[in-house]
Amino acid sequence: MEKAFAAKNYKLDATLIARAQQIAAQLHMSAEGFVNQYESFALVSDWSNDVTGQRLKTLSEWLETEQRKENSKPRGAGTGTGGVKILLQAAKPTWEDLPDKIEFPTPSAKRQALDPAALNPGPGPGSKSDIKPVPGAAPGSAQQAPRGAALTPAHAGAQNAWATTPVAASAGRAAGATPAPPSAFSMRTNRGQVMASLNDHLPGPEAATAAAGGRGGVAVRPLGQPALDGGEHLFMMEVLESKIAALDERIMDFADAVTAATRATAATLPAPSPAPAGTPGPAATPEAAAAVAPAGTPPPPASSTPGGALTPGAGGGSGAAAPAPEEAAGAAQPLQHSVADISHQPVWVAGRVLAEAEGAPLNGESLLLEGCREASGGARVRLDVSCLPGYRLFPGQSVCAYGLNPTGSRFIAQHLVTHVPPPPPGASALPEAARAGGLSLVVAAGPFCLSEDLAYSPLEELLAYCSASPPDVLMLLGPFVDGEHPGLAAGAADRTAEAVLRDEVLRRLAAWRTAAGASTTLALMPAVRDVTAVPVMPQPPMAAAAAAVGPADKVVALQNPATAAMGPLVVAAGSADVLKALSAAELARVPPAAAGAAPVERLPALAGHLLGQRSFFPLYPAPLGTCLDTSHYSQLALAAAPDLLLLPSDLAPFAKVLRPEAWAAAAPPGLVAAGGCAAAAAAPVVMVNPGRLSRGGAGGSFAHVVVAPGGGPLHERVRVEVKRV
């Protein structure tokens, strides 16, 4: 193989040579034949002489597809690549294949460059090449139909007698047809590989399975959120007034949370000692001005000159006005001042962060702060964050700012509160006795089938894993029938989406429960991309689908998003990819870490926005495809502090612990030091991105969470493994 590639002037290392030999052996090709195919493919796709693993994978998938097409032809039609000249289609280019010198005049031109159909369109749906006759079928019969046609088998036994498309091929092939070569998913060698882990020194899933024998079933109970009905009040066209009311409600709720936090922490802070005799009055020295400052606010700035160097903790100026009675007691009152009020002394204000142009990315030089209608009349001013040592901001973020507004049009922030954790769950929701128990939880997020068929092979592999190590709870997050699946999006499936959900998902889950998962509680949560669910977030639960799988106490339908109690854990989860949306929208200035302190990682910090904003989707406006219904703001609220936050995303899977020190600088003054409203309010939270169970034509990942029984903090008892399916 190495000599064959060298003869064509291609460069590749030893690992790629072994991979190329493996692909050629699977396809029953000689080394020279494989290199010839690669050369032809490289010429059409405009590849360089450097051979990469991605290019070998692309060629392998294309050759497998061509073999399937040849095998599906009648035996007398002269199949086989030996006597047929294959017309190569251009491979879908990746970003590394697009030369930097190409300049795209419009975004649509760039999308066309990455679209294989635009580069080399194939035959249309009505062309002859789309007809796949079944061996033995008479010409012109109902079995000989164009691809994508709505074919109905003549009888129940004939439903798998034909396959007109790769999607329909998942139903099975005729008994006399040549079997297709194995797919890349079935030939994978990384099954069970651990991609990310947390606390791997704790007992693993095997020990949890043995301990679960006497534990019995674990109940899954939704917490905190109002019940969402069947979707009759959800709609795609929002009324402007309801949208404005929801955004105002978010600002006021966040301001009330800051007020409550500063009022609670003021009682734990030491009171200032009385000044000795002969000390100048409060307005005479900066130290005295700082002594009478509200306990819930930073000291006043060193200078009231607009644009001066204002930093939290600097000495105060002279002539400070007497604090309000509520503020003197230690509570910040952000709703008592408008963001547009002229203030030469520091005040608290509340609002939300906006970009200067709607839809534009945030820029540190052009941030806007919009107040609520009750306190600010909806006024907008520029937000100056140049004096802050660090921040993490995104559009729609609710904030409480402490600083000056010398001109009425530019608020100079000295301190910015963006993080107030939700309160802990009540004792009635999760008794202390339950906290000491153990738990085995498997979490997987859709899609659950490969992009090349509807066979749901990854879901079958996941259920096989759960049969070997039955968990207490199996949590599946949608999409179950993905609207972005190539076959469904192109209308090439031979069944309706409801039939796919019933035949491939629900019946498989019900059969697994009967065979091996009777002791496991199953939790189902839909996604916006689910074809069979209401395409608006928040989403009502899949009650009918759950009832088809099992009884209500063993198969629980959760709305999207949801907070639920599972054994010793309070689990918060949502199927929307909020991490990816926040990653694209966030504007961050991260100060250098203190000596001896570990730097804050970006992915857990992104997930921390949900806790700090007390919302499952704090970003506004939401990206396209989210279908966010802001009128149901209460169902998006994170009502209780979770122990485990599950956020499936297309970003890299991870399992991390977010500690209070990571967001202490963005919290109300003294919240972390004083423990907040309760000690558990500032407890560390375990955050997990289990990834997707399938990624295109390849397998994805899932997470196995094991909680060791006993005492101690929960984040020290939780072991997480994110594994490849």
UniProtKB/TrEMBL annotation:
Keyword Nucleus assigned: yes
UniProt keywords, alphabetically: DNA replication, Nucleus
All copies of domain DNA polymerase alpha subunit B OB, residue ranges: 339-417
Region annotation Disordered: where it falls in the sequence: 97-157, 268-331
Sequence ranges assigned to domain DNA polymerase alpha/delta/epsilon subunit B in this UniProt record: 442-656
Segments of skewed composition (Low complexity): 135-150, 280-295, 320-331
GO molecular function: DNA binding
Pfam short name (any one): DNA_pol_E_B
Biological process according to GO: DNA replication initiation
GO annotation, cellular component aspect: alpha DNA polymerase:primase complex
Location(s) in or outside the cell: Nucleus
InterPro entries: DNA_pol_a/d/e_bsu (IPR007185), DNA_pol_alpha_bsu (IPR016722), OB_DPOA2 (IPR054300)
Family: Belongs to the DNA polymerase alpha subunit B family.
Protein name as it appears in the record: DNA polymerase alpha subunit B
